[in-house]
Design a protein that fits this description.
Blueprint lengths: L1 E5 L6 E5 L7 E5 L2 H7 L4 E7 L3 E3 L7 E6 L5 E6 L6 E6 L6 E5 L11 E5 L15 E2 L6
Parallel strand pairs: 3-10, 10-11
Antiparallel strand pairs: 1-2, 2-5, 3-4, 4-9, 6-7, 7-8, 8-9
Length: about 140
């Protein structure tokens, strides 16, 4: 199954090629870094195998930003230099295995619904828990 996505201005385009939606894990993250990067009350990413992700041949090259994520780990993010849309991220530990796609950049974000929530201890008090998925208060739970 091929899922297509792009940034807001459609300069950066990509494809995800997975055999089943079960290979993907969409999750909400309530950590401070995701809130700040996404500019919302939570981040929403879809974890996929690194081999399943590719930029299309007509895609602009994304801009890369790397920084400490606040816990001493290096976080790599790629985004469009024209419109600023985040495309993907991954930590140093996941670099060779996974990519975390910004779910909202998929042509059909609803095709890969959330399976879990992370850092629920930091969920905004006004936001309800998403029913029917796993919930981790802290990453190590």
């Amino acid at each position: 199954m091929v899922y297509k996505g792009a940034c807001y201005c459609k300069a950066v385009k990509y494809e995800i090629d997975i055999s089943s939606p079960e290979e993907a894990r969409t999750s909400l993250c309530h950590c401070k870094n995701c809130k700040r990067f996404f500019g919302t009350a939570f981040g929403l990413t879809t974890k996929i195998p690194v081999k399943a992700f590719s930029y299309t041949s007509d895609s602009a090259k994304p801009t890369t930003h790397e920084a400490d994520n606040g816990s001493g780990s290096l976080l790599h993010r790629e985004f469009c230099s024209k419109c600023g849309s985040g495309i993907l991220e991954y930590g140093a530990a996941a670099a060779s295995d996974f990519r975390y796609i910004m779910t909202g950049t998929l042509e059909d974000p609803g095709a890969l619904p959330p399976k879990g929530e992370f850092f629920c201890a930091y969920r905004e008090v006004w936001m309800p828990e998403v029913p029917g998925i796993f919930h981790k208060q802290h990453l190590k739970d």
